[in-house]
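Field notebook, page 154. I keep forgetting to write these up properly, so this time I am using the form the group agreed on. The chain and the ligand, FE2/S2 (inorganic) cluster, are recorded exactly as supplied. Prediction of the bound pose follows.
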Amino acid sequence: MTDVNVIINEKIEKFGKERQALMPILQGIVADKNYITEDELLKVAEALDLSAADVYGTATFYTFLDVVPRGKYVIRVCKTISCHMAGKDEIIEALEKTLKVKLGETTPDKKFTLLQANCMGWCHKGPVMLINDEVYPELTSEKAIAIVEEYIAK
Ligand code: FES
């Protein structure tokens, strides 16, 4: 894990001390450890001279910027219309059974978090899930379980 001040300074060097540095900083922190704390949001606000509410609003508006601790692998099943019609509910059910958690929860070993997300732009190949940055299209329940089992074995 990188010190949050190091990430902030790196991004400020690259993007300047302006608002345009906000997203890269938030993304950099989340990429490093999968979520961002309130304390870190305050540090970001201070560094860019923005209000805490502004920074918090940006972080929570983009649901990919997690403000609570997540598992090492964050699974996001697309919930938008095409994937919904293509059977995302069965995928979620299969993953809930395999991981023994409900949607929104993290496994006790902190390895997996199961979430839903909005359209990922793979609508013609639904149902789709993301595991961290990896896209898995054209899922069936069996396929989703097999993919997750590979991660369990890692
Ligand atoms: S509706 Fe699921 S990827 Fe677009």
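OBSERVATIONS:
- Residues 73-153 form a domain with the Glutaredoxin fold (CATH 3.40.30.10).
- The longest strand covers residues 73-78.
FOLLOW-UP: compare against the apo run.
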